[in-house]
Amino acid sequence: MELAGRTAIVTGAASGIGAALATELARRGVSVVIGDLDDDGAHATASAIRADGGAAAALRADATSVADIEALITLASREFTPVDIYVANAGVIGKPGLGTESDWDVILDVNLRAHVRAARLLVPHWQSVGSGYFVSVASAAGLLTQLGAAGYAVSKHAAVGFAEWLAVTYGDDGIGVSCVCPLGVETPLLQGIRGIDDPDAKLGASSIEQSAGVISAADVATVTVEAIREERFLVLPHAELLEMYRRKCGDYDRWISGMRRYQRTLRSL
């Protein structure tokens, strides 16, 4: 996929992986629209991109709101061109443990339904022009699991499943899909988990940090944008995740037993 001259929307791009993705896309010649609930942060990301010679606009937007997604799409068309690439990056870790009914509503709304709503708005246009690209920023939790946080594990599994479905269903219409599944990344989200005074939250933070090396958001962005260029579905910024996933699929019961042992080890620290 030729990136130069395209227009992208990146949600949750005030900081972390979203900001790094927006910056890397702009570096490749993509005009970027940045959406985030953090209005100041979104505009700061856009300003930094423009200062570096890129094209960017920003808007305070809730990634779960149909009206706000429509506003991002409208802004992209007004400032640049119709949207070619949508990066569904906004995400939350949610509450630790099993959570409440309202906790589940929040995490599924952000980590899954926001992707579905964006696809509903964009796919018909992409079908009509024969091209478009959807990027789901999921997590290694969507391929493995997340200790200490049921909502995060389940919602990220669902995000991976939705990305797969999009790729299968609309691939023949010229619509590409990439699904990004990193392990530990040094972002405000990870920093926030470290600060939660809860046994399950601490378990989750420890599992993330000890499963593999914690990498930078810029590292994730570099690998992801290259995958978009190559039109590759599964994006694994941590190369070791592939072998972990193979072991899980090769012997599910053994993997579950191993994860229980790992959980016991972390809880004893």
Nutshell version of this structure?
This protein is α/β, with parallel strands linked by helices and 269 residues long. Helices cover 55% and strands 14% of the residues. It has one domain: Rossmann fold (3-Layer(aba) Sandwich).
Textual characterization of the structure:
It contains 10 helices and 9 strands. The chain starts with 6 loop residues before the first strand and ends with a helix. α4 (101-129) links the parallel β4 and β5. With 269 residues, the protein is of the alpha/beta class. The model has no long low-confidence stretch (mean pLDDT 92). It has one domain: NAD(P)-binding Rossmann-like Domain (Rossmann fold), CATH 3.40.50. The chain has helices at residues 16-27, 39-51, 66-79, 101-129, 150-170, 188-194, 199-211, 217-230, 241-250, 252-267; strands at 7-11, 31-36, 56-60, 85-88, 132-137, 175-180, 185-186, 215-216, 234-235. The longest helix has 29 residues, at 101-129. Helices cover 55% and strands 14% of the residues.
